[in-house]
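Appendix B, record 7
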Amino acid sequence: LPDRPFALKHTCPTKLLPSDFKVFQVGMDMSGTRDLCRAFSNAGMSYVHWDNNKLGENMRCSRLHNFHPFQNYDDFILISNIVDNNDFYDGFLDLGLLYRHYPNAVLIINHRPLEDWIQIRSNFNNRQYIKSAKIAYCYEDDKQVQNRWREEWERHTEIARHMKQKNNARIIKYAIETQPVGDIVDQTLELA
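Structure tokens (predicted):
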């Protein structure tokens, strides 16, 4: 699909899946998201990754205008890297919106050690990412941005834990440094 970078559509998954089967990568960006997409692709499942900020834009607009997110992405099983870097919207943190519209979806929370992720984000694109984040958040220094990212991630993991306990949400945790990505695909297929 030329107009969708990092998007791939397959027509025959390894297992007959329900037509409404959806998987969302709702963990850390810059933390194995492309590896996860490759693993899904190798298993014959379609994915879309980032899509030039369009995934994040779609989710942000869904929140603002109260419409069902990802209507233009029905052909994809895995939706990954839901961010809008133009407006610094981390859609992957918005579990409530996803769960409200996709209560049967599988949510994969990929993660690495928190401080490693903070450093990767801080250094991304020759430190332009954190410089732009300071402007977007109206912060004076890097530490304020990094503290915000820490707090958002801690709140995110607490919400996910609560959703799994209270609502029996289908959440899979994926520690990218210690778990084989193929195991995550297998766990996901078991929930289909």
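Remarks on this record: The first strand starts at residue 7 and ends at 8. The CA atoms of residues 93 and 155 lie 9 Å apart.
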